[in-house]
Amino acid sequence: MLAACTAGGDRAWQSAEQLWQRRDPGAFAAWQKLDPSTANGARAHAALTRADAEYRRGIALLADEDPQARQVLESAAKRAPLDPELYLPLARAYRRRGLDERAAAMYEKFLAQASPSPEAEAARRELAALNDALGMPFEPPRATPATAWSPLWLVPLVVVALALAGWMAARRRGRRTSLAKLSAEHPELQPAIAFLVGCLRHEFFKHRILAVGDAVRAVACGDLAESERRFLLMRLFGGEALAVAWAGHLGAFMRVLGPRFDLVRLDPDFADASRDIAAIAASEAALSRGDADAARRVLAGQQRLAAFDATLARLALGLQHTIVDGALLSELAADVKRELGTAAVEIIVTPPVSAIAVESYRFDLALVIRNVLRNAVVAAAKGPAPARVAVDADVSLEPTGDEVLRLRVRDSNPESVPPAAELAEARGLALIRAALQRCDGSLSVEPGADGFAKCVVIRLFCALHDATEAA
Amino acid sequence: MSRLLVIEDGDEYAEFARVFLTDLEVTAAHSAADAIEALRTHGADALLIDLRFDRAPPSALVGDVESTAARLFGGDCERARRYLQDEQGTLILADVRAAGFALPALFVHDFPPRRLANLRRLYGDVTAVPSLDAATIRRALGGSP
After folding, report:
1. What is the structure's pLDDT at A153?
2. How are strands ordered across the β-sheet holding B105-108?
3. Cβ contact B12–A399 (<8 Å)
4. Which residue, A80, A129, B46, B109, is the most exposed by fewest CB within 10 angstroms?
5. How many CB pairs under 8 A join A and B?
6. pLDDT at residue B143 is higher than 70
């Protein structure tokens, strides 16, 4: 049944693909029109969504003079066509970077498809200025309508309107940010953000939006069984209304981030998700009566939300990822020796056989290791010679499939200190506890071995995802 | 007809399976003890296991809160309880395997490849799919030996 439903989809896909190969400006619209209930259509919509996010990120990076911009834009260009709405922002970003010829080409693409508007007029002026700079005569790509009747007094008004529009756009650009950027700028918010992202993905996306793909595809093909219809309506529209549930998650983010950070207003990905969720929420009646067109629109929205969900997953993975290796341990040992000036204490670092990634923020991890090392060095210095501290690491496998790093710091002072008292004496204990809480880590004291009196063990969960997954 | 035993704290997976995996005979269990009992009584050809059991009462969870707290969380029982809830599906699978049942197990979760490899090392035939999609689940179950 699904195959029959998608029979014409392949031809439409081939045609859309050919338009893109020819770099035809109509390629984007052709891709958008592909039926998302077909395999190729679904892939095309997913690629458009990912490419759109990359194009927008690339443009922002270009405007910020970030050298990664080129790589991001090239990656997007390999994925799917550029939305004509982005021609002008891209042209302006090229112009700001001094890439005048590319900018001119992009202005021309924009003007070739733009209808008369103040924005088009501004673009025309900017292109004219560019062509002057490039030493080329300005030939407007599209003739402007005859304006013989236009009185000269309109000119200042247009200039003021353009300036106002530019100022408003600049303000909007200035305010625009993203959850990822905010996380990077405020490490103290990362644990809360990771938790909220987890709740949003599990409760809202996994069990509601993304659980109904099969049912919506069946509606799109006119092949919906009654049990599937009930499942679809119950998951999407039963219980708490979709819009209310989404608002609840957004409200939780706002409580953590503060009222100034309204995700929907400031993060384009959340704004797009809001639009798609609102559209799905409004489709109840249409889906209920088996409207295939409505189902296709819901599927397209669902594909975009799946891509957004994947972006959130990558963000959450990337928040906690620090490499523990010989370099880090030696650096921290050297810091402590410098700080305490205890040359008589030998610190022996035995690094793990291969670098281990842990689910921790680097700042937190360094804070914990430095504190534990400092206490061990102070204790060893008070004991008999030779005063020694040893640091090593091993990894154990949990029945959950998790791996746990045990970082052991042993010292040679034979005085037996009760574990609780030992830990209570640690400098900055509250900070260590807070840091350990943030990464689900822990400290414990065990008997030492191999000539060492005692051993403080730092336990941390290993990060099992590849660093590139978290990018 | 193949028999699928769904193990979860709610009824979302079983509901999904009964609607979209109609070629399978679906039964449900809500704890490790229920699951082992169901396997002994009715048998099954595959398991579909939820990972998070945050609605299950602590008494029904596999794993001891206090010993887990002492071993992994510096004595913090609250964090240990949350960990056992969040990873409960894998611990239930450990109990099922310990009871002598080696049937294929499927999780609906985007495990990192290394964690999935660890689960296979521990529990044999384990697969995972990222979302509730009937075709993907059917492929994953069919692909199991």
Report:
1. 56
2. B24-29, B2-7, B46-49, B105-108, B126-129
3. no
4. A129
5. 82
6. no
Domain residue spans in chain B? 2-142
- The answer to whether A399 contacts B15, with C-beta atoms less than 8 Å apart, is no
CA distance to partner chain B, nearest, from residue A211 (Å): 5
The CATH H-level (homologous superfamily) assignment of domain A322-470 is: Histidine kinase-like ATPase, C-terminal domain (3.30.565.10)
Q: Report domain extents, chain A.
A: 2-141+153-175, 181-319, 322-470
Mean pLDDT for chain A?
A: 80
Residues of chain A contacting residue B116, judged by C-beta atoms under 8 Å apart:
401
Closest Cβ–Cβ partner in A213, A400, A465 for B91: A400
Q: Does B11 touch chain A (CB under 8 A)?
A: no
What are the counts of helices (DSSP H) followed by strands (DSSP E) for chain B? 7, 5
Of A206, A210, A442, the CB nearest to B72: A442
The closest CB to that of A459, out of B72, B118, B131, belongs to B72
- Predicted TM-score (pTM) of the model is 0.60
Fold of B2-142: Rossmann fold (3.40.50)
pLDDT of A294-336, one tens digit each? 999 999 999 999 999 999 988 888 777 888 999 999 999 999 9
Q: What percent of chain B stands above pLDDT 70?
A: 97
Q: State percent of chain A over pLDDT 90.
A: 27
Contacts of B110 in chain A (CB under 8 A): 313
B50-80 burial: b if 16+ Cβ within 10 Å, else e: bbbbeebeeeebbbebeebbbbbbbebeebb
How far away is chain B from the Cα of A84, in angstroms, using its nearest Cα? 33
Q: Evaluate whether A307 touches A47 at the Cβ level (below 8 Å).
A: no
Residue A240 banded pLDDT, cuts 50, 70, 90: confident
Strand ranges inside A300-380, DSSP E:
322-324, 346-349, 356-358
